[in-house]
Amino acid sequence: MSERFDVVIVGARCAGSPLATFLKRAGLSVCVVDQSGFPSDTLSTHMFQLSGIEILQKLGVLDGVLASGAPPITDCYMKFEDVDLSGPPRLRPGDPNVPMLCVRRITLDIHLVDAAQKAGVNVRLHTRVTGLLEKNGRVSGIQIIDGDGNNGTIEADLVVGADGRLSTIARLTGARRYHVLPSERLSTWAYFRGVAPQRVARVFYHRLGDDFVVAAPADNGLFMAIACPSLEYLDAYRADSEGWFKRSIAGCEPVADLLAGAERITKFRGLTRFEGFFREATGPGWVLAGDSGHFKDPTPGQGISDALRQVERLSAAIVRGFGNPRQRDSELRKWWRWRDADAIQHYWFAADIGKRGPISPVMLEILRGVARDEELRKDFLDIFIHRVRPRALFGPRALASATARMLIDSRKRPGALADAFHLLAEDVGRRRKALRPRLTEKASVDETHLDHRPAVTS
């Protein structure tokens, strides 16, 4: 059995369903396939910020998500060692009064899938991709097997991989990765019931020594807490996950107080080993969106907002070039360049936040300078909302100023120059990599895929 659509999207979560909705609204015929049913869970930090919330509003699902009981998070507890960067995010005229949200994927994704179905998108669940179709050197569709074991094909002018960091479409197209970074921490989280509601809903980021804690109130009256120990402690953590989790949380007093009388109602879930990366985003007849094409350290919780922002831009690029394959290829390559330029500084920023070990002394001094200035503190929080680029606060000028302050202070002087040169060399190296990415086909240590099946020529 074979069918045809303008676009077929593989993956129905926070990249696939929103993209499908935007494309259907633009008049294209769209099919979405996903091997899961909904509602269903997936590994995710569950947090997203204003830049993604604005897209939920455009999709018409924000009210439904808020009705799930997820409180608008309007304040941040943000501490790195002794540096306090806490405060409310900056809102601008016209912004939704919802700077941040923490919503379980079992709740969020069903709203996105329902919105796509209501828009008229053909959604196929419990359907797995087994191969690609090709015609005249272009990807022209997918091979599938449904939940009943029936084989079929779906032809399309464009195949979109929105199927996550272990993307089947990325593997089948041979999309190579670049700027690959191994994880230095594991992330483990659980949900708690019985946490007293906060007068003002806050998200917590607390890094002390080698401990890192992230926490926030979520939907359905639950509270999520995440512990991020260094990867070197993985075996010890596995031996006593409850003990490790409790010790990490105890280092963040306000979160420990909130959880003191609460009941943990879920198992610990987590991501133990992963790699951050960019992938080649497009080729003849295909494009990758969301985590399929770019995955960063999840500690700052940027992935959902990134995916939503990406697909709004991607939908416009697809529509602009849809009538002509060459024009569409050109528009998708432009979108790829935009994606990389938009994401690269935040990619390194997330990697720096997720580094194990003590924070660099010069970086701490930069953070102290930010903490002393109310506007700079808001700029720092704007980085998480994707309205300020990290280099605006952590670039060479800030590095030079912090180093100078440390050299003047005899207590901070030892090692300051060496640390500064290390940070400067790292920054220069990253900028060179951005100009000349090193492409690799090497799979991540934790990637498991279906057996490779060759493309079928139609």
Q: Would you mind describing this structure in some detail?
A:
With 458 residues, the protein is an alpha/beta fold. The chain folds into 3 domains: 2-68 and 103-181 and 274-350, FAD/NAD(P)-binding domain; 187-271, D-Amino Acid Oxidase, Chain A, domain 2 (2-Layer Sandwich); 356-435, no CATH class. The protein is built from 15 helices and 22 strands. The chain has helices at 16-25, 50-59, 62-67, 105-119, 168-173, 234-239, 241-250, 253-259, 303-320, 325-353, 361-371, 374-385, 391-394, 396-408, 416-435, and strands spanning 2-10, 30-33, 47-49, 75-80, 83-84, 100-102, 122-124, 128-135, 138-145, 151-161, 177-182, 187-193, 202-208, 211-217, 222-227, 263-264, 269-271, 275-279, 282-283, 286-288, 294-295, 456-457. β4 and β5 form a beta hairpin. α9 (303-320) runs antiparallel to α10 (325-353). The two termini are 13 Å apart.
CATH homologous superfamily title of the largest domain: FAD/NAD(P)-binding domain
Terminal residue distance: 13 Å
Indicate the low-confidence ranges by residue numbers: 444-458
| Beta-strand residue percentage | 15-25%
Number of separate structural domains: 3
Determine Rg (CA atoms, Å): 22 Å
The mean pLDDT is 92
Q: Which CATH C-level class of the largest domain is it?
A: Alpha Beta
CATH domain fold name of the largest domain: FAD/NAD(P)-binding domain
| Helix/sheet category | alpha/beta
